[in-house]
Design a protein that fits this description.
The longest helix is centred in the middle third of the chain and has 14 residues. The chain has 2 domains: 108 residues, no CATH class; 130 residues, Rossmann fold. The relative contact order is 0.12. The chain is built from 11 helices and 11 strands. The chain has a 5-stranded parallel beta sheet. Strands 3-4-6-5 form a 4-stranded mixed beta sheet, sandwiched between helices. 37% of the residues lie in helices and 17% in strands.
Length: 262
Amino acid sequence: MEAARLRAMLEAVRDGALPVEEAMQRLRDLPYEDLGFAKVDHHRALRNGFPEVIYCPGKATEHILAIAERLRLRSSRVLATRAAPEVAESVIQRFPDAIYHTPARILSIPGEIPPADDPRRAPVGTVLVLAAGTADVPVAEEAAVTASEMGSPVERLYDVGVAGLHRLLDQREKLFRANVLIVVAGMEGALPSVVGGLVSRPVIAVPTSIGYGASFQGLAALLTMLNSCASGVAVMNIDNGFGAGYFAHMVNQPPESEPETF
């Protein structure tokens, strides 16, 4: 249950438009619902601003379907990450309005609760997602789709790695317009340092497991990014596009004038 939706429900109870018993029924499964194989966190949106996201690898397809069903009853949308094509096919059979973002491997399922407009939390600006090479696009797309599904405007700038730096510099006005930048790179992972040296906005660096043997499945890029001499660069784990997109959206939010605690 999102904060804006909870506020609207409480105001309806206050105004007499919603019976107390019905409100209690809606709140019955807060903070979580025990399915036996999983404890679904319906309180997540109130704490973190977005419902619990399903991480698909390692889960049985029937468990993914059951978790998605319970989440969508109380949310305006449900996300499932790292979904294999066969999992996506099963989910779309159950929920025909679901969308599978193929490069990102993310499933987006509309919830049964309409999204609530909350102008107090409108994003500050644009999240710009950069990929050094086309092999980095799946991780970049995971970041882009995540930030977009959470509500941030997203732009993309792909194949602008340091091997052809003129490709990046030609787009510097787009870099300067962004409020937060996600920079995805494999091999030696140098691109976030270059971008960090050009812009005055936060840069979220994401190393990928793309590269030859000495890249050690992304470890070399990770160490390069951790050792960046550019200021304002935060580093995610290897291939963690979801974490980058989530964090970028959080950075892209205005500060709350009246913090809410639950």
